[in-house]
Amino acid sequence: MTALVEGTRRRLLVLGVVVALALGITGAAFAKVVRDQRQSKVPTAATRKDTALGLQQVLSQPHIVFRSTAPGPTYGRLAAAPLSDPGGGRAVTTTTCERVAATRSDAICLQADRGVVSSYDAVVLDGRLQQQTAKVALNGVPSRTKLSSDGSRFSTTVFTAGHGYNTIGFSTETIVYDKNGRSRGNLGRSSSTSHGFWPSPGQV
């Protein structure tokens, strides 16, 4: 009887130690997330450069469109810089993108909505970088996007398995859409010259 009680005590002690360690690790991880989130909101020298110019000021002249990777609150934002001085001041929007492609009159932004279950979308923007159409749901983590020169079609490539090209067993999916977000076909399942999509040099 004494041996049984002693064994039970030992098991409870071990269980208590395991629970305490698990709570400690969880607490430390949560604290790191909170700390990182706070740090990401602190403006940096790069942030000041990202917000040096007004958006309309930049868009009214020849410019390039890109995703800001500056540390701080503008990280991941859709940005634009004058073509005459791409390394100088630029402007950022409130739109966040994982991947972006743009022409003079249109842009495509692949977005992530991260949560318990993350979701991903493609958004078509106009020359003022304002949303034109409803979001198009994507089937995985964005890898890249392309926009035809005339803005009539765009393509998205996403990871349907894995999260990067260095992941063992990764798989990707590339789909072509028209400007309204209607799918024109999966490049992995059909010829790029069938069904009338991607047929001419002006649309590549």
Descriptive account of the structure:
With 204 residues, the chain is α+β, with helices and mostly antiparallel strands. The relative contact order is 0.09. The longest helix is centred in the N-terminal third of the chain and has 39 residues, at 2-40. The N and C termini lie far apart (81 Å). Helix content is 25%, strand content 33%. It has helices at residues 2-40, 45-50, 55-59, and strands at 63-67, 77-82, 91-96, 99-102, 106-113, 119-126, 136-137, 141-147, 153-161, 171-178, 183-186. A hairpin with an 8-residue loop joins strand 2 and strand 3. The radius of gyration is 24 Å and the shape is flat. Strands 4-5-6-7 form a four-stranded antiparallel β-sheet, with no helix packed on it. The chain has three helices and eleven strands, in the order H-H-H-E-E-E-E-E-E-E-E-E-E-E.
Beta content comes to 25-35%
**What is the element string, with H for helices and E for strands?**
HHHEEEEEEEEEEE
Question: Count of DSSP E strands?
Answer: 11
Structure class: alpha+beta
> Biggest sheet, in brief?
4 strands, antiparallel
Q: Report the total helices.
A: 3
Helix fraction, binned, reads 10-25%
Enumerate the strands of the largest sheet in spatial order, edge to edge or round the barrel.
4-5-6-7
Task: Please outline the helices and strands.
Layout: H1 2-40, H2 45-50, H3 55-59, E1 63-67, E2 77-82, E3 91-96, E4 99-102, E5 106-113, E6 119-126, E7 136-137, E8 141-147, E9 153-161, E10 171-178, E11 183-186
Antiparallel strand pairs: 1-2, 2-3, 4-5, 5-6, 6-7, 8-9, 9-10, 10-11
